[in-house]
Amino acid sequence: MPVKHPIEDAYLDVLQNIEFAIVSVYRNDPELTNWDVESAIDALIRQYQAEWRGKPVRPAKLSTPRKREVYEAVKSMCELRLGRDSLETESGQTVSLQMESLSLEEIVAILKRIRKSVRFWDKREGRRGYLDYISAYF
Fold it and tell me: What is the pLDDT of residue 92?
């Protein structure tokens, strides 16, 4: 499926889903930085691009538990939006969500948009600028 533009308008719900996952990690670990988020997003972009292009998918090399935690949270949301995962309630019941599955190309474009935002807010507000900015919305 071709990527719709502008990303912010066409995929607002997906951006919110992924940023909610990032904020959840940040709230559990206030020492998280923009760099941790960017590293995790970069790893996911590389993996999904490799899969999209039919290349071997290499395991992510993330140097800290913080980066791995962001990676897992965002990957879980991406897998859900790709239609490859489902949600479970606290009681263990599987919940089927009625939403259109995205393509790998769309997920990569969305992740690149988030990375762009991380870089912007990092330059503008410092090492937690992006995290503090998006936290205000959740």
Answer: 63
Question: Residues 118, 20: contact at Cβ < 8 Å?
Answer: no
Round to whole Å and give the CA distance between 69 and 29.
10
How many residues does this entry show for the chain? 138
Residue 64 to residue 54: CA distance in whole angstroms: 28
pLDDT score of 75 more than 70: yes
Among 1-10, 11-20, 39-48, 50-59, the range scoring the smallest mean pLDDT is 1-10
**DSSP state at residue 2:** P
Beta bridge partners of 94: 88
- Give the residue from 83, 80, 70 showing the smallest Cα distance to 19: 70
Which pTM value belongs to this model?
A: 0.90
| 1 in Cβ contact with 96 (< 8 Å) | no
pLDDT digits (tens, 9 = 90+) for 19-42: 999 999 999 999 999 999 999 999
Contact assessment for residue 110 and residue 21, using Cβ atoms and an 8 Å cutoff: no
